[in-house]
Amino acid sequence: MATHLSVAQARPKHKRVLPGLGLSLGTSLLFISLIMLLPMTGLIMQSVDMGWDEYWYVITNERVVASYKVTLWAAFFASIFNGLFGLLLAWVLVRYEFPGRRVLDALVDLPFALPTAVAGITLATLYSQNGWYGDLLASLGIKVAYTPVGIILAMAFTSIPFVVRTVQPVLEELSPEEEEAGMTLGASDWAVFRRVIFPALWPALMTGIALSFTRSLGEFGAVIFIAGNMPYVSEITSLMIFVSLQEFDFPAASAIASVVLMASLVLLFAINVWQARYLRRLHGR
Amino acid sequence: MSNRPGQSHQLRVGDRPLIKYSLIGITLLLTILLLVVPLISIFQQALVEGVGHYFASLLEGDTLHAIGLTLFVALLTVPINLVFGVMLAWSVTRFEFPGRKLLMTLMDIPFAVSPVVAGLLYLLLYGNNGWIGSWLYDQDIQLMFAWPGIVMVTVFVTCPFVARELIPLMQQQGREDEEAAVILGASGWQLFRRVTLPNIKWALIYGVILTNARAVGEFGAVSVVSGNIRGETNTLPLHVQLQYEDYQAAAAFASASLLALIALITLLFKAYIEWHQEKLMRNESDQEKQVAK
């Protein structure tokens, strides 16, 4: 983070005339401390109380490790799918004018607006044996509900908007000159896309995929209904925390949660640093 | 908006009709399969046992209580996060200070943290064994497994939304208008109400709508701290789960349809705001053209 701070300080000093720095910053810091940072102390204390051996035993328990693998792989495939689908959606929304474009644009946000539990029971019902899709897929010999594929599907559903919303603005601001030059010189669409457009898009695309991945790692409501939650096969890590809590095993829940929390905080900081870096390059600072 | 086709006569990537229409076709097909059909199926499943059954299951005592509790939680959460969001956006877009970037990263924590972990953090701190919770227990105050706990975790989960909508807009608008107002002698409150608020009005409303949608629908975090007491600490999303696992699928989808309706209103509202803003921008550029003439 040090690099950003020095950039901020290096900017010409702006004479401060606007009021409210103390009030707004004070309120924000107090709020963040109380709402976000203070609650973490409970988790740290609980984990420290356990002692290293027990902590290590819990987080490397076979069933828990299996849940890490299921969660990571499912989130990986879900975010790759969203990278492709999101890029396609963003492209079509920015580049083409067609009836229903506005409706499509609004629909993209549905997964953010729809409660995850609602998404969960809906997907589980659709893909179960008697559901519209499940019925169809069963005749092809494909089973989605109550398998890891169902987890991928639920994760992909809840994180569709991330890639679209990070790529869309970059695509809108892309200047047409280079692209038109390439086309005039007779290069194929694919060649111009790969050589000219993709290099400009990929930082935003990666950010979107990373956000989608982070969200998928933590997804709970949408996943548990469709996953079937079979130990070693289709249990996600969030569920392992939840199960430990239902057994009133607070130490185990905390230990697993601390792993998940650290992973998501590392991802969050990495994404922010990466984003700041490519934004700076983009604006030539 | 310079990329809208029709403004440039030169061919750009993907403008050939074959590519264009197949890309639009694939996108629409996937969107219908992945988003539209699930959305329709919520309402279809809710009405599968008839309209009478639909309303009867919504008017059932526990369902009504869940609806009431959910609205109550949203009613407390939204104003808290509205104030926080405005304060945070004001501080990070109007001033330079060391740690500003760090503050903006911290703000995103609720987006990155799994809701189950969020619920657990609160349970460990304010539950009867936590260092604050055990003290509260001695004072006979119970926050967890009661509505205050539900409100607390909902505030946590939804706190970035208002700030997230405001910050890019306020950064883009700059501080010149506000600085001019201060130099002309406006007080802090006048400045906010007369200059800032009109500029950020729509983003603020959308932030509130989004906060509300998420507050109403939060599942994982609430499910950890609620205790799921039927008719007492059951919010609507938890009630959906309860009914679904009780093999009352139609009733579960009836409750779910209310939540889906709130989601749809949220989307409609967003589409309206975008349409409204594009119209404003068009009007402005028309005026500029007339002045130029």
Descriptive account of the structure:
The complex is a heterodimer of chains A (285) and B (293). With 285 residues, chain A is mainly α. Chain A has a domain at 62-235: MetI-like fold. Chain A contains 15 helices and no strands. Chain A has helices at 2-10, 21-50, 52-59, 62-95, 101-107, 110-113, 116-127, 132-139, 148-158, 160-173, 177-184, 189-218, 221-227, 237-246, 250-282. The model of chain A is unreliable at 1-13 (pLDDT under 50). With 293 residues, chain B is mainly α. Chain B folds into two domains: 14-46; 51-284, MetI-like (MetI-like fold), CATH 1.10.3720. Chain B is 77% helix and 0% strand. In chain B, α8 runs antiparallel to α12 (220-226). The two termini of chain B are 23 Å apart. Mean pLDDT of chain B is 90; it is low at 1-8. The chains are: A mainly alpha (285), B mainly alpha (293).
Summarize the structure.
The complex is a heterodimer of chains A (285) and B (293). By secondary structure, chain A is mainly alpha-helical. Chain A has 15 helices and no strands.
Keywords:
heterodimer; A: 285 residues; mainly alpha; MetI-like fold; 15 helices; globular; B: 293 residues; 0% strand; disordered N terminus
What do we call the CATH topology of the largest domain in chain B? Answer: MetI-like fold
> CATH topology of the domain at 62-235 in chain A, what is it called?
MetI-like fold
Number of helices of chain A: 15
Percentage beta strand of chain B: under 5%
Number of beta strands of chain B = 0
Counting helices, strands and paired strands, the structural category of chain B is mainly alpha
Estimate the helix proportion of chain A, in percent.
over 70%
CATH class of the domain at 62-235 in chain A: Mainly Alpha
Distance between the termini of chain B: 23 Å
Global geometry of chain A = globular
- CATH homolog superfamily of the largest domain in chain B: MetI-like
Give the SSE order of chain B as H and E letters.
Answer: HHHHHHHHHHHHHH
